[in-house]
Each structure stands twice: as C-alpha cells, then as structure tokens.
Please model this.
Amino acid sequence: MAEAPEKNLAMDIVRITEAAALASARWLGRGAKESGDGAAVEAMRNSFTTLHIDGVVVIGEGEKDKAPMLYTGEKVGMGDGPVLDVAVDPVEGTNLLAYGRPNAISVMGVAPRGSMFSLDRSFYMQKLVVGAEAKDVVDLDAPVDVNLERVAKALGKKVSDLVVFVLDKPRHAKLIEDIRKAGARITLATDGDVAGALMAADPRSEVDIMMGTGGTPEGVITACALRGLGGQILGRLDPQSYPEKEAIQNAGWDLREMLSTSDLVKSDDCFFAATGISGGDFLHGVRYSGRHAITHSMVLRGKTGTIRYVESFHDINRLRQLSAVAY
Model:
C-alpha cells in the first residue's frame, strides 16, 4: 500500500553537519587538527539541542572518559521524537582539514534504535564499496582483478577505464600493486574513507570502486549513506593490532564473517547528510563572500533513495547574533 509522506529527517540533520562544517572550516590549513575537530564537535552537539529526536550516539568520538562530547552512548536530541541510533563524524579527515587538503567532510546518519552495527573495540574493517550498478557482482573474497573485471562489465567499461579509490597507507602496498597489474587507474588519499566510499557510489563521481582497510565506525556511517545511494559495502573486521583482535574475539565475534550494507544498518528507514569542509570534486568546501558562508551538502533518505545536493547561503552576521555556535 502507498504510504503518506513522512517527515524527512535528512533535512533536519543537514543543519547539524552544516554547523559543524562552518565552525571547523575556520581552521582550514592551520595545522591544528584538534582545534578544528573540537570546533566541529561543539557545533554539532549544540545543534542537537534543537532536534526533536530521542537519539543515542552509537558511532561517535569515542568512550565517555576519552571524549567529553558526542561519546558513544551519549543521549542527543530533545528526547521527544523518533527513537534513533545516531552515527556522527564531525570532521571526517581531520588531517585533511588541518593541512588544507581536499575532501574533509562532516557526516551524520540516523536510523531506528538498534539497527546500527556497534562493536566498540573494532577500529578497522576491510571494505569494498561500489555503486548501484555493480552491487550484485562483487565478492570480498574474490581476487582484485576478478572484482575489477566484474565491475567494469557491470558499468559497460574497460578495466583500464575504472578509477579505484584507495587510502595511501603502507598496509595497502600489495593491494595497490594488484590494482595496477589489473590495469585500472587509482586515486590515492591520505585520509577520508567515508568520502571515498561516497564517491564510489555517487553517480556524479569519476570513482567506480573503493577498496582497502579503513575505519569500522566509518563503515557503519557509509552503510547508512549507501541505503540511500543504492550501492553496496562488503566488509570484514580487520584488526591492526593484537589488543584489537583479542577484544573482538573476546566479544564473541568471528573475524571470518562478512558484513554487508544490510548487516551494518539493518533498516532502510534511515537518513544521512554530509557537508563539505575543505574543497574537493565530491563536495565543495565552505566558501566565504563578504556577507555569506556558502556550504555544499549531500542529503539522503534510505527508504525512497532520494539524493539531494544542497547549496546553502548562511548570513554569518545574523548567525552570530542568534546561535550559540561559534561561526
């Protein structure tokens, strides 16, 4: 049966990512990643006080004793609306922001309570992300060249036409070598695997696939976005230290188990927003005119698959008079 339109929470949460982007963008290229991240966290938390949700942070800044704000388990929102899991990354790519590099973004996702994957002691996950056209052809256990051939066929391209996003980390030396042997092109980034995954699934982007090991929390946030984009993330927990491995196994988790989009976020009744902080091909960074700060955001609703790209003009003088956020 057809449903009456429901409130689109994505249009509410984008105000929160915009606030975080506006507050942190003042620190672009100043080499102080803690200050930039702190400004975004404070802006995001202040903005939550106006949001009519009963939210609990599932993916946040860390444990309560290490993160004074937006820590895992913190309650957010006014407590009088939908009961939700909340995933936030006020600055995804703190080093990108600190050194003025492209594609630092502020991201947030929400989904019904209990639907987001949460394993506090898991920090790293092997990932493979593709867009909607290739979501049914990839296999996390397949060789690199096989996955690239399958994706190329699904997209109607040659392997040599593909662009693969990979984090430029020592752990990916063999992966990069295998991609090059297969003949695909590569775009390397020092940080920002949420942005890389979004680019792989965004129909406007030149990136076709993301491969490699990145953050587990970022994988959950990515899955929230992919519910709207229609793409696929395949992942497997990939601990990078013995204490991390031991903690995961002590929690009863099988490190061989593969996770998909629907495992990481179980409901399609989810919402996602991302706002650019530093400039990039994916989302524009915060720009300033004499009167306005201009932000560029992606807004997604999982249930309908609607993608919106929002350009907002913020009157800075008025915001400074009205808001507790330091713009």
About this structure: The first helix runs from residue 10 to 25.
